[in-house]
Amino acid sequence: MSVVVQKYGGSSVADAERIHNVARRVVETKRSGSDVVVVVSAMGDTTDELIDLAYSIHADPPPREYDMLVSAGERIAMALVAMAIDRLGEQAESFTGSQAGIITDALHGKARIADVRPQRIMECVERGRIPIIAGFQGVSTDTLDITTLGRGGSDATAVAIAAALGAESCEFCKDVEGVFTADPRIVPDARKLHAVSYEEMLEMAATGSKVLMARSVEIARNHGVLLHVRSSFIAAPGTYIREEDPTMMEKAIISGVTHDISEAKITLLAVPDQPGVAAKVFKPLADAEVNVDMIVQNVSHEGRTDISFTVPRSDLAAAEVAMDKVVADVGAAGFSRDTEIGRISLVGAGMRSHPGVSADMFDALADAGVNIEMISTSAIRISCVIRAEQVETAVRAVHDRFRLSEEVVYRAEHPEREADPS
To answer: I want to staple 102 with a disulfide (CB 3.0 to 4.6 A). Which of 97, 221, 261, 421 is the partner?
Structure first.
């Protein structure tokens, strides 16, 4: 089959008018010669409203019932989109995640996709109809319960379906026109990127870009699915996410600046500096399903050291419970928490051969009066933890320093630190 998977986010199906707009786009794609499979998120703020309702009823909702509730939003959206397509003269059928063959593990709220069994979807397409699939949800074959995939889970649904069908591409139709060099709400002259590699997009998604869920990019990379992020409201091309093009002679060294103000920092104080202590610190966090990101261990003094790390604020309560046990287990002096931090990251595949990039980023932050509290790097990323109130200033300063609004090949301001061109 020649199939295009289209995923529409919550803002794209927020009301009846936008649902009709989605239906028109889907029908136009089908009538242009492609079979179409559609994945939808819940309408507008429906999921947030359901979550608020759950917590107004129960301070700690049972995970099974929580998933049953919050998965309802996508089921509403899928049925309405199918109705709108039918009104335009094409036949559509709506499917829940379980009906579409999305098989997950049994972890409620953060389930991972174990398998996709798309027989019903393929049969629907072969009959000339348009499948409309509820994103964000699946079913555990161990418990036969409905599960949800976590925030942004509809992205993972779409890519997993595209991979299972061998689709030509997976289009993410959103309220943005593509992937930009920074958040346009902070940097109005941020530039839309024509293409980004899987590796760069993974780093951008993991460090604060809300355009795509990181897990969806990981699935796409593992299965070679071409991604296309574009607007739901205009027909212009957006940003393609794919393997890095080895034929390009010159490539942009920096792809973008991302930021995140949704994390907290925990510092474990006066930890014995002994082999095995780090495992005792982080294993309880893993057991509690807490995602730990940046980790910094200070220089040891008199046999003790401090260990700082960042976690999502949504995981902070679980992390604090784990830390209470860790303090006693390892003989630490205690721990502190800081919820007023932010993170800024610079991402680009060209960093591998341009060591002057980090110096220029730090210079830009210093010139803007921004103090760096933690630093973490990968081969194509530099991340700094700073004060939350300075994040927007930092993003603008770094974006300007690297001239990301212009389509230029960046040259570091510290040529003595550049790699030997020979």
So the answer is: 97
